[in-house]
Write a structure and sequence with these properties.
The structure is a homodimer of 637-residue chains.
Chain A (H helix, E strand, L loop, with lengths): L4 E6 L3 E5 L5 H8 L17 E4 L10 H6 L2 H5 L2 E3 L9 E4 L26 E7 L11 H13 L5 E2 L1 H4 L2 H7 L3 E7 L3 E7 L7 E7 L3 E8 L5 E8 L9 H5 L4 H23 L6 E8 L1 H8 L19 E4 H4 L8 E4 L9 H10 L8 E5 L4 E6 L4 E6 L20 E7 L6 E5 L7 E2 L1 H13 L18 E4 L2 E7 L10 E4 H25 L8 E5 L8 H6 L11 E5 L1 H11 L1 H13 L1 E2 L8 H8 L11 H9 L14
Parallel strand pairs in A: 1-5, 7-9, 10-13, 13-15, 16-25, 18-27, 19-21, 25-26
Antiparallel strand pairs in A: 1-2, 3-4, 3-5, 6-8, 8-9, 10-11, 11-12, 14-15, 16-17, 17-18, 19-20, 22-23, 23-24
Helix pairs in contact in A: 11-15, 11-16, 13-17, 15-16
């Protein structure tokens, strides 16, 4: 017999009973307590810090934990949730910095301007009753009427509609509303007129968050929008960890549940029944796409990174558990390649790059950043493993954009004093993506770092200090913070940020080389992505996240992928355009570009190894007296 | 607490535990013991006779039973299974005459001559492996190869095929066989070449029996055929009883199970896996059609008898529980009207009536008999409630065509001695359909009955006797039979037979009037149906089952509906033809024809009220000295 152990999570007091040797992280998942875990419980990321109240009831600290946690922390009960196995009942406190938290999730995007032509339409008809002289089948009667009254040739019907059709028609006294898909397949028959009750749902499945939009299909307008963390987060924060997870059905189940959860909230908010929602459009990167559909994803993560299917997919909602009308459909937009997904296709749709003459660059920033360069004639796209730094990952005090996160930083060039702003204006507990962009820009302008990202150890400021042989810069002193610890940015953190921005920059530069264009040729830079619109475009340019084009050509477009999903929801032409985009975009595999590695090295400089490409930033640095004295080595392949 | 009662059925010794007050008929269903029940357990047909070994453990005989069973039978323990409720454990003997039995089920039909063009085709391909330079999606790779090698444009795939596609391709080293539906939708991908392993299954769902055919789709040949009683029989033998049954899902479940059972037997017999069966075609009358698909059937039985859907239906096999390849399809052929179903469409397909110039009549004999009259220019069809007499129903000693059934009868015109033949040449226990046709013909020729069907009470023969004020004629004496009872044909039985044949004849004559044609104009009479080919065509003509056309124009075509189902299985053109037939056939509702009732009365004479329509039969009777002396009243509306 095995006694169940009880685990209590504080401060919320959630309880769960588990078997022996279950990890605290697994127990937290069971209890529905959010704990950040970037590596998916492999003991690699060190993010799932918890405080165990009765350490005698768990295993002793592992070597992994001894490497990550200080001896003070260990003696205060700090442990990594994924490495801590429960022997006897315990009480666990989850500190604020380890919370996944209620993130600031951006759902706004540019307005979708498309002609209203949804797949799903409703038609009200009054049928004549059958007689011995006119005893044609109920379905024929319906089809004939739709043809005569509306001129549409229906020739298919959902099986579940035909089954009860006879009694629906008679109970409704032959006055009914018919819901038709693509003007050819009947998917619902309802008594009376319900002509104005036709809704659709557009979903953007991000690696980190889900954004959902409820639209009225008779007007094309958004009636409600909402978002949620992607529940797959529990199984690992990055794509590769999730692809490697043993049970993809489980990953599908939770992400579908998440989309259902948003929809149910939106419907309740505006008084719509989920049965009145007839169609869903879905965008997401290729891994999210495959996992949402439970399509075997393994080879997305292995060279040559081929997706299983590129085309847009139509599927019955019930087949994958999406809770809308039982005969409703899900349309998943097409992808381009293993690392350029439906979200990128949707962003191109939303920014109209595929239609216009101007040369555009799109940066859709996320854990993976997609870069697109082109116009209606030709489009190139690549994917950059920018990593989670701009989402607070791999940064010592990094966190998501939730309450208490430092989101804006300025450093006084004279005093090196720091001014910051936190989300909700509460005491800070960490720094989020937009501040992660500010920090190196501010440090460069104030001489805290040089163009190589190296901290200047000769600075005379208490904020710059060395700890365990690593330089760090204090953004907030412990008496200002809610964690009781100093919030710092370390030299390691700067390296992470440099790697992240270098990845994005390399993608942009590589596409420019491939297309043989210069900064001046680029007419517009669209910065998209949930983090996109909170980032300061100037600071992003100063750190060399993207090539130096005039700031007035830079447009923040927010969640462009979500906008594209909404366009596809209300417009069949938009779906056709998405297919065209999917076929037309040429995928550039960065790893196979000859000078990829040297370009990545060059791009890791702030803003770039070759400052002649950044004349404005050079001038600014020169003005501030921070222009590098020695020439920068430019790496060549 | 309620104790379960045990019921033992003899002689097979099957046991079942039931709760109190369950009827013996229900217990028999639970135990899987076949007991004939024409009325579906309503106490109306008196067919479910059983012997209860311990009558003290059941309810006393009901009034219904006292009306049906003699006092000798009641004291011998005879009861009606549907009226007998179980109080305590009992032993039940099911006499042979109450057995549904292993019926002689005809599956043969005329050969289906069609060009081989199945919906389902297999293609073997060897794909190139993806590289960084050629990293298109797995599905694109497959589609491109199918286009280049075979010239087919596939643009759809079954979701369940896409999900594991990546690993199937790689595990098969990119050498695979693709199964494609209609050259546009991939429904299976298998490792290696399985080009020669593609099978289909054609099913004829009769009210009484199911006939199934396993075909090799690469050759178009039948590889095995088999049949089974329609398990819906347990819920009532006639269509109206089944339509009125409370749980249509249950009726669907059992008939699908029946079709699965036949298929599984056929597959085992010839070494085919059910996964290798990709498509099923189904025919049946409109009620069977609706019940097979669980389409609400109520209004089929109510004037104006409109079907819910007329068109042919394609549905995923798994959606209705048909056990073939998980991505396989079921095609249900179209119907014409509420009482003219897909079986009739298939019979027209098989007899090619819709294609030829000759004027044809098709009689598809069953519990409901469909009559078709026409040719390629015009076709009329009607349905006649011929009832179960030709299947042994409503006949005192009637039974199905199973072992021991008298199937052939001749009466010596001098001695009135009876010669009979039984199925399997064992002792007789009842009479089946073909003998039901012989009996009145023989009786007419020997003067046992007159043209009105009335027995001649002046006959000097021990075989003709009166019992309970009803005349009856002994076909087999009790010492010859296996039941220990005389097997007789009563005056009531003759009335039933007259009603049955009158219904068929009325249908035929009504269509002839509608089409303004005479007997001589008819070039071919096709007699179809499971009972069709065992019936003596001459005797059938003598009793006036169909209009008197020269016998050489009469063709027995067996199970033509099954033949049509096979044609549709291997030929897409045949399916299109079926749709055309379904649209083209004009349904004639007999009940709305003005002189229907008088025609029915006229048709109840043997062979017919107006003997001038039966010159050959009149001549025969005249020769035998049995020509009616007084003129026959011809009824007019």
């Amino acid at each position: 017999m095995q006694l169940a152990r009880e685990v209590v999570f504080q401060p919320e007091g959630k309880r769960v009973r588990v078997r022996s040797r279950v990890s605290v992280l697994e127990a937290a998942h069971l209890a529905g307590v959010d704990i950040t875990s970037v590596c998916g419980g492999k003991g690699e990321c060190g993010k799932c810090r918890v405080v165990i109240k009765n350490v005698e009831n768990v295993n002793p600290p592992t070597d992994v934990e001894k490497g990550v946690l200080t001896s003070e922390e260990l003696s205060a009960g700090y442990r990594l949730a994924c490495r801590t196995l429960i022997n006897v009942s315990i009480v666990v406190r989850v500190p604020e910095e380890s919370r996944t938290g209620k993130q600031r999730l951006q759902v706004e995007g540019i307005e979708a301007k498309v002609k209203l032509e949804p797949s799903v339409r409703k038609y009200f008809v009054k049928l004549s009753k059958p007689t011995l002289e006119d005893s044609m089948s109920d379905f024929d009667r319906l089809v004939e009427k739709l043809w005569k009254q509306y001129g549409i040739s229906v020739f298919e019907a959902e099986y579940e509609v035909v089954k009860p059709l006879a009694s629906i028609l008679r109970n409704a006294d032959w006055k009914i509303t018919v819901t038709v898909l693509d003007d050819r397949r009947i998917i619902d028959v309802e008594p009376r007129s319900t002509m104005d009750r036709s809704f659709g749902y557009a979903v953007d499945i991000g690696t980190t968050k889900l954004a959902g939009y409820l639209l009225n299909l008779t007007t094309g307008k958004v009636v409600a929008a909402g978002s949620l963390m992607n529940p797959q987060i529990h199984y690992g924060e990055d794509i590769v960890t999730r692809i490697g997870y043993k049970d993809h059905r489980e990953l599908q189940r939770v992400v579908v549940e998440g989309t259902n959860q948003i929809l149910s909230d939106l419907c309740e908010r505006v008084g719509v029944s989920q049965e009145e929602v007839y169609e869903v459009t879905v965008v997401g990167n290729t891994a999210m796409h495959h996992l949402f559909l439970n399509i075997y994803p393994k080879y997305l993560a292995l060279s040559p990174y081929t997706p299983v299917i590129r085309q847009g997919i139509d599927i019955n909602a019930k087949e994958i558990g999406v809770k809308i009308n039982p005969n409703g459909r899900v349309h998943v937009l097409p992808v381009v390649a293993g690392f350029v997904g439906a979200d990128c296709v949707a962003a191109i749709l939303a920014t109209r790059v595929y239609k216009i003459n101007k040369l555009c660059m799109v940066l859709d920033i996320g854990t993976n950043t997609e870069v697109v360069l082109g116009n209606k004639d030709k489009m190139l796209a690549c994917s950059c493993a920018s990593g989670p730094a701009f989402e607070g990952g791999h940064i010592k005090h990094g966190m998501r954009a939730s309450s208490g996160a430092i989101e804006k930083v300025t450093i006084n060039p004279e005093t090196l004093e720091v001014k910051y702003k936190t989300i909700d204006d509460v005491k800070p507990c960490g720094i989020c993506g937009s501040a992660v962009v500010d920090v190196p820009a501010e440090m460069l302008k104030t001489g805290v770092i040089d163009v190589a990202g190296k901290m200047n150890s000769n600075l005379n400021s208490p904020r710059l200090r060395e700890k365990d042989d690593v330089l760090e810069f204090v953004l907030a002193w412990k008496n200002e913070t809610s964690t009781g610890r100093d919030i710092v940015v370390t030299q390691h953190d700067l390296r992470e940020i440099q790697l992240a921005k270098a990845a994005i920059h390399t993608g942009a530069v590589t596409l420019m080389k491939e297309a043989k264009v210069k900064e001046d040729d680029i007419d517009v830079v669209f910065i998209a992505g949930a983090f996109g619109s909170y980032i300061d475009p100037e600071n992003a340019r100063i750190i060399g996240m993207y090539p130096e084009v005039p700031l007035k050509r830079v447009k923040m477009v927010g969640n462009a992928a979500g906008t594209g999903a909404r366009m596809a929801l209300v417009s069949k032409t938009a779906r056709e355009n998405a297919e065209e985009i999917s076929r037309k975009v040429k995928y550039v595999e960065l790893a196979s570009v000859p000078d990829f590695k040297s370009e990545l090295m060059n791009s890791s400089f702030i803003p770039y190894a070759d400052l002649s490409c950044y004349p404005d930033t050079s001038q600014l640095l020169r003005k501030l007296g921070k222009f590098p004295k020695k020439s920068i080595l430019k790496f060549r392949s």
